[in-house]
């Protein structure tokens, strides 16, 4: 059985870049690796509805924290068979955003921290009720918040179809979400975490060794 490794972080943190670097390093070390990303906006109707809500196309749906959380959770629930197949056939399954995203963003929307009721509600919904595979390790990609925000703004200008949604364009929400992410990592929520701040050399080689050989 392979290891489920999740990359979390704010919009613009560089999750896709880290996933690509890790894939290359894991493959070079002889590991088999596959990757996926949530929300699956183009592949799941729940994620599609959530995207429409975030761009103001679903009335007041986006105003409901719990309704949005359920849509994102149902997207992951629908992916369980594929995730389990990937875990049975690969050494590492890399996931860009997972349950912790739901916990962090919705706690931030409600003004709660990592110990608030919505974090436990998300865990109970996705892990206990939906029986999602639990991560073996989570990576928090945490550059300075201003760096992530600037990357997100630049991406909006240079990549067609990447206009920032209601969450991405809310700087105050991003700041609160960053704080909750760091609390979740510090508490070891659902699994061991490694925090990568992006200030040092390329972390992918060391992370690949950890993920293939290290504990947690």
Automatic annotation (TrEMBL):
Keyword Nucleotide-binding: yes
Domain Thymidylate kinase-like: 7-175
GO cellular component term of the entry, any: cytosol
Record InterPro entries: P-loop_NTPase (IPR027417), Thymidylate_kin-like_dom (IPR039430), Thymidylate_kin_CS (IPR018095), Thymidylate_kinase (IPR018094)
MF-aspect GO terms: ATP binding; dTMP kinase activity
Entry EC number(s): 2.7.4.9
Entry keywords, A to Z: ATP-binding, Kinase, Nucleotide biosynthesis, Nucleotide-binding, Transferase
Pfam families in the cross-refs: Thymidylate_kin
Catalytic class of the enzyme: transferase
Keyword Nucleotide-binding (UniProt): yes
GO biological process, one term: dTDP biosynthetic process
Catalysed transformations (reactions): dTMP + ATP = dTDP + ADP
HAMAP family: Thymidylate_kinase (MF_00165)
Reported function: Phosphorylation of dTMP to form dTDP in both de novo and salvage pathways of dTTP synthesis.
Recorded family membership: Belongs to the thymidylate kinase family.
Name by which UniProt lists this protein: Thymidylate kinase
């Amino acid at each position: 059985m392979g290891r489920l490794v999740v990359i979390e972080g704010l919009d613009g943190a560089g999750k896709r870049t880290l996933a690509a670097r890790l894939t290359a390093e894991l493959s070079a070390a002889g590991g088999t690796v596959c990757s996926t990303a949530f929300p699956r906006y183009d592949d799941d109707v729940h994620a599609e509805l959530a995207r429409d809500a975030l761009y103001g196309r679903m009335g007041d749906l986006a105003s409901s924290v719990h309704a949005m959380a359920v849509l994102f959770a149902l997207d992951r629930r629908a992916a369980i068979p594929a995730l389990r197949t990937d875990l049975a056939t690969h050494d590492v399954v890399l996931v860009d955003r997972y349950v912790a995203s739901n916990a962090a963003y919705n706690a931030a929307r409600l003004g709660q921290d990592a110990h608030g009721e919505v974090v436990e509600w998300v865990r109970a919904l996705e892990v206990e009720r939906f029986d999602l595979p639990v991560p073996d390790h989570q990576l928090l990609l945490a550059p300075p918040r201003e760096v992530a925000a600037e990357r997100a703004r630049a991406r909006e200008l240079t990549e067609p179809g990447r206009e920032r949604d209601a969450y991405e364009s809310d700087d105050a929400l991003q700041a609160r979400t960053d704080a909750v992410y760091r609390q979740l990592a510090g508490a070891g929520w659902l699994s061991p975490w490694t925090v990568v701040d992006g200030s040092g050399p390329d972390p992918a080689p060391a992370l690949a060794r950890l993920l293939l050989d290290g504990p947690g």
